Amino acid sequence: MKPAPAALLVALASLSFVSHVSAEPPAFKNRLDGERAFVIKVGEAVVKAVRTSPAKLTLGDYKITDPKPNRKLIAITMNWAGSITGKKFTSEIKILVDSADRDSWEGIDIEYSDNNPSPKIGMERNLKALKDKFNR
After folding, report:
1. What's this model's pTM, rounded to 2 decimal places?
2. Which domain holds residue 104?
3. How many domains does the chain have?
């Protein structure tokens, strides 16, 4: 017996939502890459932690500021597309970092927003887990 075409399409579509294995996020305590390369990896890791299957991730812009002594604010704009629809989205990421030791930063907080109307299921939990990985 052949499966119904609709059932086959649903099965294939559900496979695309399975989270993919991604490279280990960069560690803030070991920033060996250049600044831009490091920021790209951080931005990609944050978007992938919040969104199920972003595609074509690119860095829009970034800025690192010193809001107060021993703190840095990394503001990142990431551009990406939905893997199924191809619709383009923009994410705004802000990461507050303890930079008292200039060679070994520690992530304090991650703020995330984007213009994709779909729900961000588990965002807080995933960002907390990502912060722990950043601080390894």
Report:
1. 0.81
2. 26-134
3. 1
